[in-house]
Amino acid sequence: MLLFVLLISLLGSYLLTPMAKRLAFILGAVDKPNKRRVNVKPIPNLGGLAIYAGVILGLLFLEVNSQIKGIMVCSTLIVGLGLIDDLYELSALTKLLGQIIIVLILTLFGIKINFIRGYYIGILSIPVTLIWMLGTINTINLIDGLDGLAGGITVISAVPLAIVAYYQGQMLTVLLTVVLIGATLGFLRYNFNPAQIFMGDTGSMFLGFMLGVIAITGALKSVTVLTFVTSILALGIPIFDTLFAILRRKLSGKSIFKADKNHLHHQLLRMGLNQWQAVVIVYLISVFLGLIAVGLNQANLGEGIFLLVMASSFLLVGARKSGFFNFDSNKYSKY
C-alpha cells in the first residue's frame, strides 16, 4: 500500500506539472526577476497545483475518515488562498487571516493537539493547534527562495516524521507522509536548478500545511517535551531559519513582517556558492537534524541531552560562521 500511494502521488504531480506550467503562463502567474528574487528570467509559479493534485490522488486511495475529509477540505482552501496570492499578491495580514480561518475549520474535523504531557487541554487545544499550524505554513513559505529548496526540505523533513510515526504504530500518518513525499518528488523533477516552474505560495503554504497536519496526527498527537523537540528538529531548517529571521529583524529595528535577503540560503549565496551548492548544503543540514530527531525519539535521557546539545551547538556555530546574524543587509548587493 505504501509503495502504491507513493507511485500514484508521484506520477500524478509529475504528469500534471507541465499542465500547471501552461496554466500559469495563461493566467499571468509568473515570477519576474526583481531585487528580492534570484531568478534571472520569468518563471511560472503555479507548480503547487500539481503537488496538491498529486496528494489528493494519493489520499483517494486511503480509507476516508473524518481526518482525511478535513485534510482534503482544508488543503483545498489553503491552496485556494495561495492561488489568489500568486495571482493578485495579497497583503501579509490578509493571508494570515485566511490561514487562521482555515486552521480553525481544520480543528472542526478533530485534527488538533488535545493533550500536553498526558493532560487533556480542552479549549486550549485550538490556540495551541493554531500556533503550530501557522508556524509550519509560514516557515516553508519563507524558505522557498532557491530552486528545489522548499520541496527538497519538505521531503527530508517528512522522512523522520514518517519513521517516528511508524515506530509508534500510527500508519495513517505514515501513509499521509508517503503521499506528500511522492507528490513533492514528482514536482521536483521540474523544480531543480535551473527550475522550469516554481511552486509559488500555492505550493509552499500547502506543503507547510501538510507537514503541520502530519506532525499533529503523529508525533504531536499527545505533546511531551520529547515529541515536541522531535517535531521541531524534523522541521529544523525552516523553523530555525524563521526564528533567526524574526530575531534578526527585531534586533535591527525592522518589522518582523518585512522581507529581507538574509535567510540561510541568501547567506550561502553570498559566500560564493551557486544555487545548486547552496541547496545541497541546506539539504545536508536538514538530513543531519532529521537523523538527530529520529535518534532522539529512541534515546534515553542522557543520550537525548547529548543529542540536543550537539544539535544546538551545530546550529549556533553554523549560523554565526555564515554571517546569519549580520544585521547590515544593505552592505550586500549581489543577491
Automatic annotation (TrEMBL):
Any GO BP annotation: cell wall organization
Positions with a binding annotation for Mg(2+)? 141, 201
Q: Which GO terms describe its cellular component?
A: plasma membrane
Q: Which GO terms describe its molecular function?
A: metal ion binding; phosphotransferase activity, for other substituted phosphate groups
Its needed co-factors are: Mg(2+)
Where is it predominantly found? membrane
User: Is Secreted set as a keyword in this record?
Assistant: no
Q: What is this protein called?
A: UDP-N-acetylmuramyl pentapeptide phosphotransferase/UDP-N-acetylglucosamine-1-phosphate transferase
Would I find Cell wall biogenesis/degradation among this entry's keywords? no
User: What keywords sit in the KW lines?
Assistant: Cell membrane, Magnesium, Membrane, Metal-binding, Transferase, Transmembrane, Transmembrane helix
How does this protein sit in the membrane? Multi-pass membrane protein
Cross-referenced Pfam families, in alphabetical order?
A: Glycos_transf_4
Provide the transmembrane region boundaries. 6-30, 42-62, 96-113, 119-137, 149-167, 173-192, 204-220, 226-247, 276-295, 301-319
Q: Can you say where in the cell this protein is located?
A: Cell membrane
